[in-house]
Known about the structure:
Blueprint: E1 12-17, E2 20-25, E3 31-33, H1 69-95
Antiparallel strand pairs: 1-2, 2-3
Amino acid sequence: MVKFCPKCGGLMVPVRVEGKQYLQCTKCGYKEKVGKKKEGYTITEKVDKKTKVKTTSVISKPASLTMSEEERQQMMEEYYEVALDLIQEEIEGGEGED
């Protein structure tokens, strides 16, 4: 059985707040408490043991991301050269369009 919001007509879906079940509108957020008769709504969540992911709190930077000051300076110089070339091309190309 599907229930729709009495305010806006949006779909009402089951949610659990502080251990109590409610039906909440997906559009406007209107909530109403689910009575003793649950009308076929259930909230379940199954997790397959194969899809569980182990995580760690240790975060390390890859060695390839660290640059020396000299490498950083050279990269910035190349960036500025390319940027100046593009600006010059745009200026030269813009004069002939009028």
